Amino acid sequence: MAERATAAGRAGLRTGPGRLLVTVYGVFTVAAASRSAYQLSARFDEAPVAYLLSALAAVVYALITVSLVRGGERARRLAFGCCAAELAGVLVVGTWTLLDSSEFPDTTVWSGYGYGYLFLPLLLPVAGLLWLRRARAAA
Description:
The chain is built from 5 helices and no strands.
């Protein structure tokens, strides 16, 4: 019985809306990692803070993606924490870029609350947190 519940819990994070979250977070992982790898290697001197923040965003996206795919309560908690950190990052960096754009001569994934990515970086962690909360209640 416990084995069946564990299997259901693992699958629960990656079914229905969870599957869409896994896909979008996977795309964001590749996009942010590719962008930051190029920026850090070729243009680091131009905007080091912005490029390091893009790399941090890629790491957070990767952790969320892996956690959602892995499933289980421990992975759900990690994904929940990462989504909360992502939301905080988007809000802090978004506000920072609006108040002091001199620190950001180039944009990050989270600049302007993700306006360069159609505000998905702002909406995605909210959707993730809601889904993970619902997945916990279902388990």
